[in-house]
Amino acid sequence: MADEPATTTYVVSVFEAPNWRIVLTTNEKAKALARAREIGDKVRVEEITPKPEKR
């Protein structure tokens, strides 16, 4: 059984007091960074990689 590569997800969030709001969730890093630049200030891009299952 071949191991499948982990899929990385990028989450773009913007700060609206008092919480962070998710604007975009994508598998493409370039798309996430472009959206963050477009929004401007108070933005973060998180990279989420799932942990492999233990068997």
Walk me through the structure.
The chain is α+β, with helices and mostly antiparallel strands. The chain is built from 1 helix and 3 strands; from the N terminus they run ββαβ. It has one helix spanning 29-39, and strands spanning 9-16, 19-26, 43-48. It has a 3-stranded antiparallel beta sheet with strand order 2-1-3, covered by helices on one side. The relative contact order is 0.33.
Low-confidence stretches: none
In percent terms, what proportion of residues is strand? 35-45%
Q: How many domain units? A: 1
Question: How much helix is in the residues?
Answer: 10-25%
Strand count, sense and closure of the main sheet?
A: 3 strands, antiparallel
Number of strands: 3
Class inferred from helices and paired strands: alpha+beta
Give the radius of gyration. Answer: 14 Å
Query: Mean of the pLDDT scores?
Result: 86
String of helices and strands: EEHE
* Helix count from the secondary structure assignment: 1
The strands making up the biggest β-sheet line up spatially as 2-1-3
Distance between the termini: 12 Å
Q: What overall form do the CA principal axes indicate?
A: elongated
